[in-house]
Design brief:
alpha/beta, 579 residues, 46% helix, 26 helices, Trna Endonuclease, Chain: A, domain 1, five-stranded parallel β-sheet, single chain, globular, Rossmann fold, five-stranded mixed β-sheet
Length: 579
């Protein structure tokens, strides 16, 4: 059986096709985009923007006409071409390569070098059409060279140009998040090289030299600040028809895994565990609507998992790509100016996993000064992919990967040591007794004891289960995967430990239900933590989860545990026996 390439990190569409890599067909969206003038489509990093831009390039580029059926014959658009395939000169610019230095002149020089090189390359790419094209002066401004080039094409009745700008805001975002406000204002000022460039693009659309302009990026900040020069953009990020254009749906994931399991000859008995991990770690993104709509998976993170799974033939220990952890530095940069507000928001997400947001702020573009206001943090985190829509009023953390990143930030904010002080009781769990009570006791003694008093005003069962999960995942991921709020007919479980099918705990499951009592509520019980009794309703609740799990995994060995947390006074763990 041929083992196809897992295209992690491949951003060139032709390379993906020619290497016969796994491919999720998104070409139907090309047809939808043709009805939109000058679309601007924003998505977080690692959602496949660059690959989609490359796909557009190969579809519209007239010099790729001989390869159309080779590159697109297997796709939806190859079988339903729009009539505009291979009809344009394509100018594709990747602005993520522009380095940001500490002065305007060097940034402009890097921008000019990148864009002028692309214009010079046009002459070599289309020699028949551009043999009489005026020479591009690499030292001249990009806007001037672009205007001259477009005027020449228009005057010679050359085909129209399709412009693709990938990561339009990459270098501007670096200035924003590093608080280089003066430099940012200068590159978006009315006389700046960047505004002049977008004015030239707008003029090209008005003359008809440019057929359309497709722009991708992460944040709406820069396009808003450029609106006086480029007021023709159609902001389609939250367009319902385009929600699934980037990212994977559950149907697409199932089809992809079917192929992987067939090609790599994985045993079908491992498939439910793999489905479970991918869903809990990488699913949950809602850009247009809340939970009533189908959630999306982070496409690059899924490919990272599949690559590691195919290499090792087991669920990898590290489920979060190291590249994802750079998002934590984004959060730190954004929130650094308001530490008190930051601590409040991060603590709320750790405890509640929800935060209010203003719908108008998502739909309406906002400028750089808004970006660093604490009331805009939820919107900023939404565009960065750290938060997603829960419903029309609240945002939430989409999956376990993002929960882990936010708890890491929480630990950093409150100077919580997550080093080797936990090794002894984590090792004891693996080597000897698999005792949940002992594991939680160590967590309470070493982790909870470090929390400042102010934190306990906001803690609840979600806080305890999430921080406990994050800590355990640091030490136990070789042997276990984890679920939070897994759905059953009887409801959603709080936390589950799942033995990996390739390790010593294969077939074992631990279901853990957390119950929280504030100090005031606990005082009414008249008990000490060691005296607090197991509640019948909690036994019934966790038994319902166990019944649902046993129907899915009849061979599993299931352990049930209820953990009561009493403010900051203590806890009690019960091992529950099913009737």
């Amino acid at each position: 059986m041929v083992k196809r390439l897992v295209p992690y990190g491949i951003m060139n569409y032709a390379e993906l096709v020619l290497k016969q890599a796994y491919f999720i067909d998104k070409t139907e969206y090309i047809s939808t985009l043709e009805d939109i003038s000058n679309p601007v489509y924003l998505r977080p990093r690692r959602f496949g923007k660059s690959l989609f831009c490359s796909m557009l390039q190969y579809y519209y580029d007239l010099k790729e006409s001989p390869r159309f059926f080779e590159l697109f014959g297997h796709t939806w658009i190859g079988q339903h071409p729009t009539g505009k395939q291979n009809a344009y000169i394509v100018l594709k610019l990747d602005l993520s390569t522009i380095e940001t230095n500490d002065n305007l002149q060097s940034i402009e020089r890097n921008f000019r070098r990148t864009c002028n090189a692309a214009l010079i390359e046009m002459k070599n790419s289309y020699p028949g059409l551009m043999q009489n094209m005026p020479e591009i002066n690499p030292d001249e401004s990009t806007s001037t060279n672009l205007s001259i080039w477009l005027q020449h094409l228009k005057s010679t009745n050359a085909p129209q140009v399709y412009v693709i700008i990938d990561e339009y805001d990459n270098f501007a975002n670096h200035l924003i998040t590093t608080h280089q406000d003066s430099l940012y204002r200068r590159i978006t000022a009315d006389d700046s090289f960047l505004k002049s460039f977008f004015k030239a693009l707008k003029a090209g659309r008005q003359t008809g030299a440019i057929a359309n302009i497709f722009i991708t990026g992460i944040l709406p900040v820069t396009i808003d600040d450029l609106s006086s020069a480029y007021n023709i953009a159609d902001f389609v990020t939250l367009h319902p028809q385009l929600e699934g254009m980037l990212g994977f749906t559950e149907t697409e994931i199932n089809h992809l895994l079917d192929q992987v399991y067939r090609d790599y000859e994985f045993g079908p008995e491992t498939r439910p565990a793999v489905d479970e991990v991918i869903k809990s770690q990488y699913n949950g993104y809602h850009f247009v609507s809340g939970k009533e709509g189908a959630a999306l998976y982070n496409s690059t993170m899924v490919m990272y998992f599949i690559r590691e799974f195919c290499r090792s033939r087991t669920i990898p220990n590290n489920l979060i790509d190291l590249n994802l952890r750079t998002d934590l530095s984004w959060v730190q940069r954004i929130t650094g100016a308001h530490p008190d507000s930051t601590a409040e928001i991060v603590s709320q997400l750790a405890s509640e996993n929800t935060i209010r947001y203003d719908q108008d702020a998502l739909i309406t573009q906002f400028n750089m000064s808004d970006f660093f206001k604490p009331q805009f943090y939820p919107v900023s985190f939404f565009y960065l992919g750290l938060l997603t829509r829960k419903d029309d009023f609240y945002l939430c953390l989409p999956n376990l990967s993002m929960k882990k990143i936010f708890i890491e930030y929480f630990n950093d904010l409150y100077h919580i040591d997550v080093g080797t002080r936990y090794t002894e009781f984590m090792e004891r769990f693996v080597v000897s007794n698999q005792d949940i009570a002992g594991l939680f006791s160590g967590y309470w003694r070493e982790y909870v004891s470090q929390l400042p008093e102010a934190v306990f005003a906001k803690v609840n069962e979600n806080f305890y289960r999430t921080t406990f999960y994050e800590l355990c995942s640091r030490f136990l991921s070789k042997w276990l995967t984890f679920n939070i709020e897994r759905s059953y007919p009887a409801g959603r479980s709080d936390l589950e430990f799942v033995g990996k099918f390739s390790e010593k705990f294969a077939g074992r499951r631990w279901i853990i239900e957390f119950k929280y009592y504030s100090n005031a509520e606990f005082a009414k019980s008249g008990c000490t933590p060691d005296e607090f009794p197991l509640q019948d309703e909690d036994v019934k609740q966790i038994a319902g989860y166990a019944q649902g799990l046993a129907r899915e995994y009849p061979e599993a060995t299931i352990s049930l545990h209820v953990i009561y947390c009493f403010g900051n006074q203590g806890f009690r763990v019960f091992d529950v026996k099913e009737n």
